[in-house]
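Anyone opening a protein record will find just a pair of labelled lines. A complete record is shown below as an example.
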Amino acid sequence: MPVIYVVGIGPGGADTITPQALETMRSCDVIAGYEKYIDLVRDLVPGKILYSSPMKHETERCRNVLTMTREMGKTVALISSGDPGVYGMAGLMMEIAKGTGVEVRVIPGITAANSCAAILGAPLMNDYVTISLSDLMTDWSIIERRLIAACECDFVMCIYNPASNHRPDNLKKACKIVMNYRKPDTPAGYVRNIGREGESYRVMTLKKLMSCREIDMLCTVIIGNSRTYILDGKMITPRGYNNV
C-alpha cells in the first residue's frame, strides 16, 4: 500500500527536529509543505524534490501530494511546523486520502506549546489547554466560549495564532475576557520565532499582555492560571508535589 508521511518538524530549528522526523524526510522522494516550512528544512534534505505552496492552499497541497503518491509513485513527506496533529496537516491529509487506498502515517513533532513553555520556564506543569485565536475557520463566538470555559476551569492557556495584520485586536479581546476571571497580575508571556533566528521572549502580567502590540503570528502566548507565579523571571505553575 502506498504511504504518505505527515511529518512534524518542530518549532523551527534543526536541533528540535526529532530523529524520526529527519529520518522519514530523508527516506522520501518529495518534501511538500508551506513555503516557509520548506525553507526551514531545505538544507537538511539535499537532493530531494521540494514542493511548496502558499498559506491558504492547504487543500490543494494535500490533493497534489495524493496525486504524486498515487499517479507518480512518489513517496512524499508532507511537513507541518510543530506537531502535524496540532493545528497541522494530519487531519486534512487523512480526510483527502480516505477511500483512495493510500495510507497516511503521522510522524509527531515538538509542539509550539511545549517549546514555548520550556523557554518561559515551567508554566504547563498542571492542566492546560491550547486555543487558537484565528477566526478564519472558527467563529469568534466559539473562541470566546472556549476562553470562558478555560477560565472557569482554571486551566493554563497556550494561545496559538494570537494576532495578525488582519486581526490585530484578537489577543486584546481575549485578554479582556480572561481578566473577568483572573487577576490583572496573573503571569503571562510569549515567545517569538521559537527555535529560529531572532528568537525572543517576554514574561509579564496579564494586564501588560493585553496592551502588548508586538505580538503577531510568529508568537505563541501562555497565560497562567490562579496558581502560576514568576520566579527569577520565569513562569511556574505548581504541580503540587510539595503538598504530597
Summary: The chain has a mean pLDDT of 95. The domain at 112-236 is CATH 3.30.950.10 (Methyltransferase, Cobalt-precorrin-4 Transmethylase; Domain 2). DSSP finds eight helices and 13 strands in the chain. Residues 227 and 237 are 6 Å apart (CA to CA).
